Amino acid sequence: MTNQPPAPRPCRTCPYRTDVPSGIWSQEEYDKLPPYDGPTWLQPLSLFLCHQHDADTEGARVCGGWAGCHDGDHLMALRVATATGAITPETAEATRRYTSPVPLFASGTEAAAHGTRDLHAPTPEALHAMAKIKRTRTHLS
């Protein structure tokens, strides 16, 4: 199974969106964002997939926020995924050309800093978003 291209807009709980409440994902999820800011050769080899689907399920797709925040020409994960068949060349090209219609943080580091700010004291908006995620992703605790 190959992963699909990014959705037309990053999901409403995307950690890269500037309008998503802080603290809705775990520390471990936010820790994944900054390494994609680094030089190509130091970046993670794994695609950053949308949180709305499990990686091994039908409908899994490249995260629109990740695609919109980072320069696809310099994403090592995009190169590896194309070479291994995790995505098609068409999906790789769609990811490289992706432009988000909603505001995103300028880097994974900025997104992670925002996301972790209220991690231990989430706002009512964050709690509402977490409840929606839990309904969608039933394996999360």
Outline the fold blueprint.
Elements: H1 27-31, H2 64-69, H3 76-84, H4 89-97, H5 108-117, H6 124-136
Overview of this protein structure:
By secondary structure, the protein is mostly helical. The chain contains 6 helices and no strands. It has helices at 27-31, 64-69, 76-84, 89-97, 108-117, 124-136.
Shape: globular
- For the residues shown, what is the average pLDDT? 93
| Strand-residue proportion | under 5%
Question: Got a strand count?
Answer: 0
Q: In DSSP terms, counting alpha (H) and pi (I) runs of 4 or more, how many helices?
A: 6
* Major beta-sheet overview: none
Instruction: Provide the gyration radius in Å.
Output: 14 Å
Q: What's the order of the H and E elements? A: HHHHHH
Structural class estimated from helices and strands: mainly alpha
Q: Could you list the spans in which at least 5 consecutive residues all have pLDDT below 50?
A: none
What is the first-to-last residue Cα distance?
26 Å
Helix content: 25-40%
Could you write a compact summary of the structure shown?
With 141 residues, the protein is mainly α. It has six helices and no strands.
Keywords:
141 residues; globular; single chain; 37% helix; mainly alpha
